[in-house]
Amino acid sequence: MEKNKLNTGLGKEDMENVAASGMDLSEETRSASFLQQDDRILFSRSLMEGIDIISVEEALEKHPDVRKLYGKAFRMVGKEFPGDTKGGYFIRVRAGARVEMPIQSCLFLKALGFRQRVHNLIIVEEGARVYLITGCAASKAAHESFHLGVSEFFVEKGAYLNFTMIHSWREDISVKPMSVALVEEGGSFISNYVCLRPVKEIAMYPTALLLGRGAKASFNSLILSHPGTLQDIGARVVFKSPDTSAEIISRAVSLGGKVIARGHLKSESAGTKAHLECRGLVISEKGTIHAIPELETDLRDVDLSHEAAIGKISKEEIEYLCSRGMTPDQAQSVIIRGFMDVDILALPEALRKEMKDLEDKTLEGSL
Amino acid sequence: MLEVRNVSVDIGGNPVLKNIELSIAPGDVMVMFGPNGSGKSTLVKAIMGFGGYSLAGGSIMYKGRDLKAMRIDERVALGIGIMYQHPPKVRGVRLRQLSRFLCGDEKKIEDLTETLSLEDLVDRDINFDLSGGEMKRSELFQISLQEPDLLLLDEPESGVDIENISLMGKVLNGYLKKKERSALIITHTGYILDYVEARRGCLMIDGQLWCAGRPPKEMFEEIKNKGYGFCRECHGKK
Prior knowledge:
The complex is a heterodimer.
Chain A: H1 12-19, E1 32-37, E2 40-46, E3 51-55, H2 56-62, H3 64-69, H4 72-76, E4 89-93, E5 103-109, E6 115-124, E7 129-138, E8 146-155, E9 160-168, E10 174-183, E11 188-195, E12 201-204, E13 207-210, E14 216-225, E15 230-233, E16 236-239, E17 245-254, E18 258-267, E19 272-282, E20 288-297, E21 302-311, H5 315-322, H6 328-339, H7 349-366
Helix pairs in contact in A: 5-6
Chain B: E1 2-11, E2 14-24, E3 29-33, H1 40-48, E4 55-62, E5 65-66, H2 72-78, E6 80-83, E7 90-94, H3 95-102, H4 106-115, E8 125-126, H5 132-146, E9 150-154, H6 162-177, E10 182-186, E11 200-205, E12 208-214, H7 216-237
Parallel strand pairs in B: 3-10, 3-11, 6-9, 9-10
Antiparallel strand pairs in B: 1-2, 1-4, 4-5, 7-8, 11-12
Helix pairs in contact in B: 3-5, 5-6
């Protein structure tokens, strides 16, 4: 397909909001794109063979095999999921495909008070490898709006999915992502989550089920909490097979909001290895960070560990940087930026740089 | 250049510095001796304007300006710099990042990195997992890029092996030889005197400053041979 600029029909300001959630509207660095506004699909196309990207409704209609998958991940963990969703993307990367440039998607809130409810299905077939960036953003007009995102990830045998989600909301928007990932033998599921802009409330606790031997999961998150915000964010990994491993890493900075940083590693198989690391920095006296790390197993032959540390920036660190000529504000900003280290996200160099630039831009306005 | 006039500092209600008088002229290098806990570091911290070290009395003037109401960075902008004795760890901030903040000349950063053998350290978080010698070299690296007119050195040789002292002494001496650069060097061991040309010394004991202006090598010999007890006696006689 010929590359031409995405005709999104969005105005300049909305385009900026969409771009701030990681969307490359030139598509030069992407292999496929999907854009949904409220409940309308504005755009979806693949620039590479081996990638299907369409709305989930279209996929259910066209591909009977997809119907079996719809809801399967939630049934596997015994969780209910809302059935009244509208829209969401279906992304399938065919067996053996190596997708170097990321696939991108964006779920955009535009109308005042709109309740966006989507159901996404992501399938990475055997031996395939892919990066997916999904952004969630809101227009200036989307006051008091709501976003519910149900996502199911199927990482098949030996497949690799690196999923980066960027939340770029507004201070009066509530958000509830619900995700379950099924990872088969030798598969890897990597989830990177970045939320630096204000939001009213986020509650999310994605689960990865490691079903096959050697399966891996990794959840990494960078959270900046603004005053008046509640972010209840965690990740859970359940180990169902031997030689499975996982890592949950989070960095949270509270500028005055409340962060609950959860993590749960549950081993139901011997020979599993996992680590949970949660670091928090409370900048404002009004801020709260509550870390709740959980490790659980009935077995002896497992290696589960966690470390959690919450603190403030020490006076000595600030004074040290001031004695090198930084103003106290500059010093604080440099320390926060360093703390919100994009290197904890498992990203290839090009994406790492993109994320770093995005973070710098967002933090510049926030700090 | 630096005029410390009748300065007193209290910490936790206890007087730590009492009526200190000290002046350092442009190009002047002054060495300060004194036992542990005598108030040497407190004076340096008060000059920098660190929290908890504000003046209970007196004034500190620099280049004709009263430092009292100035923040640390404003004092730095005027040309004061400090080489820490025990620098804090700063997680997430790399030495290279700070060096670029201090100096826009990438070539100079690179050369100095090599001179001070910091190649392995520049991409680490500041002051993480450093040996005593590495820590001092990192401090000297930063201060050489910052280029203050008045350098406050708090025990630059403590915890450093002989080889590193020699390297640091050379770099430091090169730095101070440039025109109009001044320094106040706190030393415990006196090793630094072998490398840095200093004409004036002083002695801090029990929060008081004595013998300002005497030749430092002579002072150090005396302290080495007779101890600080002798200084106390000698001062008592005066």
